[in-house]
Amino acid sequence: MTAAMKNRIAPFPFVARAIFAALLGVSWQYGHWGPVLSLLLIPLVVMGPSRRDRYGVALAYYLAGSHGLILGSASFFGPGHVPMGVALWLASSVLLAAGWVFADRPWRVLAVLLIDALPPLGLFDWLSPLANAGVLFPALGIFGLLAWLLLIYVALHGLSAYRDRHALSASLDIIPVLLIASLAANMVIPNETRPVGWMGMDLHLGPITRNIMADMARNQEWISQTQAKAGHHRVVLLPETLLTWWAGNAAEVKSAVPMGQTWLVGASVPVGPALLADGIEEVRGGVVDGKGKSGRLIFVSPFPVPVSMWHPWYQGHGYVRSDGVGYEAGWWEPIRKVDGVRAWASICYDQLLPWVWAECVAQDPQVVLLTNNEWWADGTGIPEIQRATAWAWTRLIGSPVVEAENAENR
Protein backbone atom coordinates (compact mmCIF):
# COMPACT_ATOMS: atom_id res chain seq x y z
CA MET A 1 0.00 0.00 0.00
CA THR A 2 1.42 3.34 -1.02
CA ALA A 3 2.67 5.89 1.47
CA ALA A 4 0.34 8.49 -0.05
CA MET A 5 -2.68 6.31 0.58
CA LYS A 6 -1.59 5.66 4.16
CA ASN A 7 -1.24 9.36 4.78
CA ARG A 8 -4.72 9.88 3.38
CA ILE A 9 -6.54 7.23 5.46
CA ALA A 10 -4.36 7.15 8.58
CA PRO A 11 -5.07 10.34 10.53
CA PHE A 12 -4.83 8.48 13.83
CA PRO A 13 -1.47 7.99 15.53
CA PHE A 14 -0.19 4.61 16.54
CA VAL A 15 -1.25 4.89 20.20
CA ALA A 16 -4.84 5.71 19.28
CA ARG A 17 -5.05 2.81 16.83
CA ALA A 18 -3.45 0.39 19.31
CA ILE A 19 -5.96 1.36 22.00
CA PHE A 20 -8.82 0.97 19.55
CA ALA A 21 -7.48 -2.45 18.50
CA ALA A 22 -7.26 -3.51 22.16
CA LEU A 23 -10.89 -2.49 22.67
CA LEU A 24 -11.84 -4.57 19.64
CA GLY A 25 -10.11 -7.56 21.23
CA VAL A 26 -11.93 -7.07 24.53
CA SER A 27 -15.27 -6.72 22.71
CA TRP A 28 -15.27 -10.48 22.05
CA GLN A 29 -16.29 -10.98 25.67
CA TYR A 30 -19.47 -8.94 25.28
CA GLY A 31 -22.23 -10.61 23.34
CA HIS A 32 -21.80 -10.58 19.58
CA TRP A 33 -19.70 -7.42 19.44
CA GLY A 34 -16.44 -9.27 18.76
CA PRO A 35 -17.43 -10.79 15.41
CA VAL A 36 -19.31 -7.64 14.45
CA LEU A 37 -16.43 -5.24 15.11
CA SER A 38 -13.42 -7.46 14.31
CA LEU A 39 -13.55 -6.31 10.69
CA LEU A 40 -12.20 -2.95 11.86
CA LEU A 41 -8.90 -4.54 12.86
CA ILE A 42 -7.93 -4.76 9.19
CA PRO A 43 -7.87 -1.02 8.37
CA LEU A 44 -6.37 -0.23 11.78
CA VAL A 45 -3.40 -2.45 10.96
CA VAL A 46 -3.10 -1.75 7.25
CA MET A 47 -2.89 2.02 7.66
CA GLY A 48 0.28 1.57 9.71
CA PRO A 49 3.26 3.21 7.96
CA SER A 50 5.80 0.65 9.15
CA ARG A 51 6.14 -3.00 10.05
CA ARG A 52 6.67 -2.14 13.70
CA ASP A 53 3.50 -0.06 13.70
CA ARG A 54 1.39 -2.80 12.12
CA TYR A 55 2.79 -5.40 14.48
CA GLY A 56 2.08 -3.25 17.52
CA VAL A 57 -1.55 -2.66 16.59
CA ALA A 58 -2.19 -6.35 15.88
CA LEU A 59 -0.40 -7.36 19.09
CA ALA A 60 -2.60 -5.01 21.13
CA TYR A 61 -5.68 -6.72 19.66
CA TYR A 62 -4.58 -10.25 20.49
CA LEU A 63 -3.15 -9.45 23.92
CA ALA A 64 -6.32 -7.68 25.03
CA GLY A 65 -8.65 -10.27 23.56
CA SER A 66 -6.97 -13.40 24.92
CA HIS A 67 -5.94 -12.25 28.40
CA GLY A 68 -8.41 -14.76 29.86
CA LEU A 69 -5.78 -17.46 29.23
CA ILE A 70 -4.00 -16.36 32.40
CA LEU A 71 -6.97 -16.82 34.72
CA GLY A 72 -8.11 -19.83 32.72
CA SER A 73 -4.84 -21.67 33.33
CA ALA A 74 -5.02 -20.88 37.04
CA SER A 75 -8.65 -22.05 37.21
CA PHE A 76 -8.06 -25.27 35.29
CA PHE A 77 -4.66 -26.39 36.58
CA GLY A 78 -4.47 -24.51 39.89
CA PRO A 79 -3.07 -21.17 41.13
CA GLY A 80 0.51 -22.38 40.72
CA HIS A 81 0.11 -22.42 36.93
CA VAL A 82 -0.30 -18.68 36.42
CA PRO A 83 3.20 -18.42 34.85
CA MET A 84 2.21 -21.06 32.30
CA GLY A 85 -0.92 -19.06 31.51
CA VAL A 86 1.14 -15.92 31.02
CA ALA A 87 3.51 -17.80 28.71
CA LEU A 88 0.64 -19.18 26.61
CA TRP A 89 -1.00 -15.76 26.44
CA LEU A 90 2.18 -13.99 25.32
CA ALA A 91 3.32 -16.70 22.91
CA SER A 92 -0.01 -17.04 21.11
CA SER A 93 -0.45 -13.26 20.80
CA VAL A 94 3.09 -12.69 19.55
CA LEU A 95 2.76 -15.40 16.90
CA LEU A 96 -0.70 -14.42 15.67
CA ALA A 97 0.32 -10.77 15.36
CA ALA A 98 3.54 -11.59 13.48
CA GLY A 99 1.95 -12.06 10.07
CA TRP A 100 0.33 -8.63 10.17
CA VAL A 101 3.80 -7.12 9.83
CA PHE A 102 3.56 -7.91 6.11
CA ALA A 103 -0.07 -6.80 5.65
CA ASP A 104 0.62 -3.76 3.48
CA ARG A 105 -1.08 -5.04 0.30
CA PRO A 106 -4.63 -6.37 -0.20
CA TRP A 107 -3.47 -9.85 -1.16
CA ARG A 108 -1.13 -9.96 1.83
CA VAL A 109 -4.01 -9.14 4.16
CA LEU A 110 -5.94 -12.14 2.82
CA ALA A 111 -2.82 -14.28 3.11
CA VAL A 112 -2.34 -13.30 6.76
CA LEU A 113 -5.98 -14.04 7.59
CA LEU A 114 -5.75 -17.49 6.01
CA ILE A 115 -2.29 -18.35 7.38
CA ASP A 116 -3.39 -17.41 10.90
CA ALA A 117 -6.56 -19.48 10.47
CA LEU A 118 -4.85 -22.69 9.32
CA PRO A 119 -2.61 -24.97 11.42
CA PRO A 120 -0.14 -24.52 12.96
CA LEU A 121 -1.09 -20.93 13.86
CA GLY A 122 -4.73 -21.89 13.51
CA LEU A 123 -4.39 -24.19 16.51
CA PHE A 124 -4.80 -21.14 18.73
CA ASP A 125 -6.30 -18.52 16.39
CA TRP A 126 -8.87 -16.96 18.65
CA LEU A 127 -10.53 -13.68 17.64
CA SER A 128 -10.20 -14.20 13.88
CA PRO A 129 -11.82 -11.43 11.79
CA LEU A 130 -12.93 -14.22 9.43
CA ALA A 131 -15.88 -14.71 11.78
CA ASN A 132 -17.23 -11.40 10.49
CA ALA A 133 -18.28 -13.25 7.32
CA GLY A 134 -21.22 -14.63 9.30
CA VAL A 135 -22.27 -11.09 10.21
CA LEU A 136 -22.21 -9.73 6.66
CA PHE A 137 -23.25 -12.80 4.67
CA PRO A 138 -25.48 -15.00 6.85
CA ALA A 139 -26.71 -18.37 5.61
CA LEU A 140 -24.56 -18.18 2.45
CA GLY A 141 -22.01 -20.76 3.58
CA ILE A 142 -18.92 -21.11 1.42
CA PHE A 143 -20.23 -18.44 -0.98
CA GLY A 144 -20.60 -16.03 1.93
CA LEU A 145 -17.03 -16.67 3.03
CA LEU A 146 -15.71 -16.12 -0.49
CA ALA A 147 -17.82 -12.97 -0.85
CA TRP A 148 -16.37 -11.62 2.40
CA LEU A 149 -12.80 -12.26 1.25
CA LEU A 150 -13.57 -10.59 -2.09
CA LEU A 151 -15.09 -7.58 -0.31
CA ILE A 152 -11.96 -7.13 1.83
CA TYR A 153 -9.67 -7.43 -1.17
CA VAL A 154 -11.65 -5.06 -3.38
CA ALA A 155 -12.09 -2.45 -0.65
CA LEU A 156 -8.39 -2.41 0.17
CA HIS A 157 -7.45 -2.46 -3.49
CA GLY A 158 -9.67 0.53 -4.17
CA LEU A 159 -8.04 2.49 -1.37
CA SER A 160 -4.53 1.59 -2.46
CA ALA A 161 -5.23 2.47 -6.10
CA TYR A 162 -7.28 5.62 -5.62
CA ARG A 163 -5.08 7.46 -8.14
CA ASP A 164 -5.66 4.72 -10.72
CA ARG A 165 -9.01 5.63 -12.25
CA HIS A 166 -9.58 2.19 -13.79
CA ALA A 167 -8.77 0.27 -10.60
CA LEU A 168 -10.91 2.60 -8.54
CA SER A 169 -13.79 2.27 -11.00
CA ALA A 170 -13.61 -1.52 -10.85
CA SER A 171 -13.70 -1.43 -7.06
CA LEU A 172 -16.64 0.95 -7.05
CA ASP A 173 -18.50 -1.39 -9.39
CA ILE A 174 -17.96 -4.49 -7.25
CA ILE A 175 -18.33 -3.13 -3.72
CA PRO A 176 -21.97 -1.99 -4.10
CA VAL A 177 -22.93 -5.40 -5.49
CA LEU A 178 -21.38 -7.14 -2.49
CA LEU A 179 -22.97 -4.71 -0.04
CA ILE A 180 -26.39 -5.21 -1.63
CA ALA A 181 -25.87 -8.97 -1.39
CA SER A 182 -24.98 -8.55 2.28
CA LEU A 183 -28.06 -6.44 2.94
CA ALA A 184 -30.29 -8.91 1.12
CA ALA A 185 -28.82 -11.87 3.01
CA ASN A 186 -29.45 -10.13 6.32
CA MET A 187 -33.01 -9.20 5.36
CA VAL A 188 -34.06 -12.66 4.23
CA ILE A 189 -32.01 -14.80 6.63
CA PRO A 190 -34.17 -17.84 7.37
CA ASN A 191 -35.39 -18.48 10.90
CA GLU A 192 -33.80 -21.89 11.31
CA THR A 193 -35.41 -24.17 13.89
CA ARG A 194 -33.87 -27.28 15.33
CA PRO A 195 -35.12 -30.63 14.04
CA VAL A 196 -38.40 -31.71 15.59
CA GLY A 197 -37.79 -33.93 18.60
CA TRP A 198 -34.22 -32.75 19.26
CA MET A 199 -33.06 -31.09 22.48
CA GLY A 200 -29.86 -30.04 24.25
CA MET A 201 -29.37 -30.82 27.93
CA ASP A 202 -27.64 -28.25 30.15
CA LEU A 203 -26.20 -29.59 33.40
CA HIS A 204 -24.49 -28.20 36.51
CA LEU A 205 -22.27 -31.07 37.61
CA GLY A 206 -18.78 -29.65 37.73
CA PRO A 207 -15.82 -31.92 36.87
CA ILE A 208 -15.28 -35.65 37.17
CA THR A 209 -13.56 -36.43 40.47
CA ARG A 210 -11.01 -39.02 41.60
CA ASN A 211 -13.53 -40.48 44.03
CA ILE A 212 -15.13 -43.55 42.44
CA MET A 213 -18.23 -43.46 44.62
CA ALA A 214 -18.70 -39.73 44.01
CA ASP A 215 -18.43 -40.27 40.27
CA MET A 216 -20.96 -43.10 40.37
CA ALA A 217 -23.38 -40.77 42.17
CA ARG A 218 -22.59 -38.04 39.65
CA ASN A 219 -23.41 -40.37 36.74
CA GLN A 220 -26.68 -41.38 38.34
CA GLU A 221 -27.54 -37.73 38.88
CA TRP A 222 -27.14 -36.62 35.26
CA ILE A 223 -28.80 -39.78 33.96
CA SER A 224 -31.85 -39.23 36.16
CA GLN A 225 -31.99 -35.54 35.19
CA THR A 226 -31.84 -36.44 31.50
CA GLN A 227 -34.53 -39.09 31.82
CA ALA A 228 -36.78 -36.61 33.62
CA LYS A 229 -36.33 -33.75 31.13
CA ALA A 230 -36.01 -35.63 27.83
CA GLY A 231 -39.71 -36.50 27.75
CA HIS A 232 -40.79 -37.53 24.28
CA HIS A 233 -37.76 -36.07 22.48
CA ARG A 234 -36.15 -38.46 20.03
CA VAL A 235 -32.57 -37.10 20.18
CA VAL A 236 -30.95 -35.66 23.31
CA LEU A 237 -27.55 -33.93 23.16
CA LEU A 238 -25.47 -34.03 26.36
CA PRO A 239 -22.39 -31.94 27.29
CA GLU A 240 -18.73 -32.64 26.61
CA THR A 241 -16.69 -35.17 28.68
CA LEU A 242 -19.49 -36.12 31.06
CA LEU A 243 -17.70 -39.36 31.85
CA THR A 244 -14.95 -41.75 30.73
CA TRP A 245 -16.40 -44.41 28.46
CA TRP A 246 -15.38 -47.43 30.52
CA ALA A 247 -17.41 -50.62 30.10
CA GLY A 248 -19.25 -50.09 33.39
CA ASN A 249 -20.10 -46.46 32.67
CA ALA A 250 -21.12 -47.30 29.12
CA ALA A 251 -23.39 -50.13 30.27
CA GLU A 252 -25.08 -47.86 32.80
CA VAL A 253 -25.81 -45.23 30.15
CA LYS A 254 -27.01 -47.77 27.61
CA SER A 255 -29.44 -49.33 30.05
CA ALA A 256 -30.84 -45.89 30.93
CA VAL A 257 -31.81 -44.72 27.43
CA PRO A 258 -35.54 -45.22 26.81
CA MET A 259 -36.75 -47.22 23.83
CA GLY A 260 -36.94 -45.10 20.69
CA GLN A 261 -34.69 -42.36 22.08
CA THR A 262 -31.11 -41.50 21.13
CA TRP A 263 -28.65 -39.89 23.53
CA LEU A 264 -25.56 -38.16 22.18
CA VAL A 265 -23.22 -38.38 25.16
CA GLY A 266 -20.04 -36.33 25.47
CA ALA A 267 -17.38 -38.73 26.71
CA SER A 268 -13.66 -39.35 27.04
CA VAL A 269 -13.30 -42.54 25.02
CA PRO A 270 -10.20 -44.79 25.34
CA VAL A 271 -8.69 -45.23 21.87
CA GLY A 272 -5.15 -46.40 22.65
CA PRO A 273 -2.52 -46.79 25.37
CA ALA A 274 -2.84 -43.74 27.65
CA LEU A 275 -4.85 -42.03 24.92
CA LEU A 276 -8.44 -40.80 24.89
CA ALA A 277 -10.71 -39.19 22.32
CA ASP A 278 -12.82 -36.19 23.27
CA GLY A 279 -15.91 -37.40 21.49
CA ILE A 280 -19.63 -37.99 21.34
CA GLU A 281 -21.12 -41.47 21.73
CA GLU A 282 -24.43 -42.20 20.05
CA VAL A 283 -26.52 -44.46 22.29
CA ARG A 284 -29.88 -45.64 20.98
CA GLY A 285 -32.36 -47.03 23.43
CA GLY A 286 -33.21 -50.68 22.91
CA VAL A 287 -30.95 -51.04 19.87
CA VAL A 288 -28.07 -53.51 19.92
CA ASP A 289 -25.84 -54.19 16.93
CA GLY A 290 -24.39 -57.51 15.88
CA LYS A 291 -21.45 -57.12 18.26
CA GLY A 292 -23.68 -56.65 21.29
CA LYS A 293 -23.18 -52.88 21.41
CA SER A 294 -25.82 -50.18 21.47
CA GLY A 295 -23.41 -47.23 21.22
CA ARG A 296 -20.91 -45.92 18.69
CA LEU A 297 -18.36 -43.12 18.67
CA ILE A 298 -19.67 -40.79 15.97
CA PHE A 299 -17.77 -37.55 16.60
CA VAL A 300 -14.18 -36.91 17.71
CA SER A 301 -12.84 -33.43 18.46
CA PRO A 302 -10.56 -32.27 15.62
CA PHE A 303 -8.36 -30.50 18.14
CA PRO A 304 -8.80 -30.81 21.93
CA VAL A 305 -7.44 -28.08 24.20
CA PRO A 306 -3.66 -27.87 23.61
CA VAL A 307 -1.36 -28.53 26.57
CA SER A 308 -4.11 -29.62 28.96
CA MET A 309 -5.59 -32.32 26.68
CA TRP A 310 -3.56 -32.54 23.46
CA HIS A 311 0.13 -32.95 24.23
CA PRO A 312 1.78 -35.45 21.84
CA TRP A 313 5.20 -34.41 23.12
CA TYR A 314 4.40 -36.12 26.43
CA GLN A 315 3.15 -39.71 26.69
CA GLY A 316 1.20 -40.55 29.83
CA HIS A 317 0.90 -43.95 31.45
CA GLY A 318 -2.77 -44.23 32.39
CA TYR A 319 -6.25 -42.94 31.74
CA VAL A 320 -6.74 -40.29 34.42
CA ARG A 321 -5.35 -36.76 34.60
CA SER A 322 -2.85 -37.63 37.34
CA ASP A 323 -1.33 -40.22 34.99
CA GLY A 324 -0.77 -37.63 32.27
CA VAL A 325 -3.42 -39.02 29.94
CA GLY A 326 -3.48 -37.41 26.52
CA TYR A 327 -6.20 -36.82 23.93
CA GLU A 328 -5.89 -37.50 20.23
CA ALA A 329 -6.68 -34.91 17.60
CA GLY A 330 -9.20 -36.06 15.01
CA TRP A 331 -8.25 -33.19 12.61
CA TRP A 332 -11.27 -33.76 10.36
CA GLU A 333 -14.86 -33.84 11.62
CA PRO A 334 -17.18 -35.46 9.07
CA ILE A 335 -20.94 -35.15 9.00
CA ARG A 336 -22.84 -38.08 10.52
CA LYS A 337 -26.47 -39.03 10.10
CA VAL A 338 -28.36 -39.01 13.39
CA ASP A 339 -32.05 -39.93 13.29
CA GLY A 340 -31.92 -39.35 9.54
CA VAL A 341 -30.51 -35.81 9.90
CA ARG A 342 -27.08 -34.74 8.61
CA ALA A 343 -25.40 -33.49 11.79
CA TRP A 344 -22.01 -31.95 12.49
CA ALA A 345 -20.54 -31.40 15.95
CA SER A 346 -18.19 -28.78 17.37
CA ILE A 347 -16.78 -29.85 20.73
CA CYS A 348 -15.74 -27.13 23.19
CA TYR A 349 -12.32 -25.71 22.17
CA ASP A 350 -13.03 -26.47 18.50
CA GLN A 351 -15.62 -23.69 18.58
CA LEU A 352 -12.83 -21.10 18.77
CA LEU A 353 -10.96 -22.26 15.65
CA PRO A 354 -11.67 -20.96 12.12
CA TRP A 355 -10.19 -23.99 10.35
CA VAL A 356 -12.52 -26.34 12.20
CA TRP A 357 -15.49 -24.16 11.29
CA ALA A 358 -14.30 -24.15 7.68
CA GLU A 359 -14.78 -27.94 7.72
CA CYS A 360 -18.40 -27.35 8.68
CA VAL A 361 -18.88 -24.66 6.04
CA ALA A 362 -17.56 -27.03 3.37
CA GLN A 363 -19.96 -29.84 4.37
CA ASP A 364 -23.16 -27.78 4.89
CA PRO A 365 -24.89 -29.83 7.63
CA GLN A 366 -28.60 -29.74 8.43
CA VAL A 367 -27.93 -29.18 12.13
CA VAL A 368 -24.89 -28.11 14.16
CA LEU A 369 -24.27 -29.63 17.59
CA LEU A 370 -22.34 -27.60 20.18
CA THR A 371 -21.08 -29.30 23.34
CA ASN A 372 -19.22 -27.52 26.13
CA ASN A 373 -17.73 -28.24 29.53
CA GLU A 374 -17.33 -24.82 31.15
CA TRP A 375 -17.20 -25.69 34.86
CA TRP A 376 -13.68 -24.26 35.14
CA ALA A 377 -13.96 -21.14 32.99
CA ASP A 378 -16.32 -18.85 34.92
CA GLY A 379 -14.95 -15.31 35.01
CA THR A 380 -12.22 -15.93 32.42
CA GLY A 381 -14.10 -14.55 29.40
CA ILE A 382 -13.30 -17.72 27.45
CA PRO A 383 -16.90 -19.03 27.29
CA GLU A 384 -18.08 -15.65 26.03
CA ILE A 385 -15.51 -15.64 23.21
CA GLN A 386 -16.45 -19.22 22.38
CA ARG A 387 -20.16 -18.39 22.19
CA ALA A 388 -19.54 -15.31 20.05
CA THR A 389 -17.37 -17.27 17.62
CA ALA A 390 -19.88 -20.12 17.38
CA TRP A 391 -22.72 -17.63 16.84
CA ALA A 392 -20.93 -15.98 13.92
CA TRP A 393 -19.95 -19.19 12.15
CA THR A 394 -23.30 -20.94 12.59
CA ARG A 395 -24.91 -17.76 11.28
CA LEU A 396 -22.72 -18.03 8.17
CA ILE A 397 -23.64 -21.70 7.76
CA GLY A 398 -27.35 -21.03 8.27
CA SER A 399 -28.10 -24.32 10.04
CA PRO A 400 -30.04 -24.64 13.30
CA VAL A 401 -28.06 -25.25 16.47
CA VAL A 402 -28.53 -27.68 19.34
CA GLU A 403 -26.30 -26.93 22.34
CA ALA A 404 -25.47 -28.69 25.61
CA GLU A 405 -23.26 -27.30 28.37
CA ASN A 406 -21.94 -28.52 31.70
CA ALA A 407 -21.25 -25.70 34.16
CA GLU A 408 -20.06 -25.55 37.76
CA ASN A 409 -22.19 -27.01 40.54
CA ARG A 410 -24.87 -24.64 41.76
Automatic annotation (TrEMBL):
It comes from the Bacteria. Gene3D superfamilies: Carbon-nitrogen hydrolase (3.60.110.10). The chain crosses the membrane at residues 31-47, 59-78, 84-102, 133-156, 168-189. Keywords: Membrane, Transmembrane, Transmembrane helix. This is CN hydrolase domain-containing protein. It comes from Acidithiobacillus ferridurans.
